[in-house]
Amino acid sequence: MSLLKKNKTVFIIISIVILSVGIISVYQYIYRSPKKTVEIAPEYKGNANEFNYLVTDNLSHWISKIVQITGKVTQVNEDGILLNGTIYCQIEDIHDFQSITENQNIVIKGKLVGFDELLMEIKLNQCIIIQ
To answer: Which pTM does this prediction carry?
Structure first.
């Protein structure tokens, strides 16, 4: 009988350990931080004008995709910049674009969030300046 009791306690201890490891793993998987724009490879690399045509043809395909765009800065405001007059980029870090001036060519990487029909602008957020 004592052998059976020892096996039961060993089985219970092993079960508790396995269950604890499982719960901790699931918790870490669910509550891990999302990847940042810097860490994700872009789905598109190219010119802002070409990207504008791609997005107007099929907007739903590009929503939530990371893109890297080269373009000319047409406007700078406190929250972001406007590339080629059609792509608004909300900059993630304010210190990144303090040296940006109008008519400057830059490369930006960001996440496409939508199209503003009122202003006729493609919206990118979480943007970082590559060059």
So the answer is: 0.73
